[in-house]
Amino acid sequence: MLHLNRPAYNWKIALYIIPRPDFKGPAGGSSMKSYLEPILMTEKGLLPPGFVLEDPESHYIYVCEKIDETELPTYPLTANVL
């Protein structure tokens, strides 16, 4: 997230965690949790406290959506940015 969550990019980032196709949850069943809903992250782009990852070898999908250009903050260009 450190590479994606930079103010200059001005992205709205959604995280989806998709388990492996052959993953079976506790007691051999698959979870009823919807994988079509994004995971709510903190302002720093971290998983919320107490979040339990069901499948440690899940696939992480980051969807970065550019925020409307009219809402962009202005950043002056300086030599150290280039």
TrEMBL record:
Source species, domain of life: Eukaryota
MF annotations from Gene Ontology: methyltransferase activity
Biological processes per GO annotation: methylation
Keyword set, alphabetical order: Methyltransferase, Transferase
Protein name: Methyltransferase 13
Organism (species): Bixa orellana
Taxon lineage: Eukaryota, Viridiplantae, Streptophyta, Embryophyta, Tracheophyta
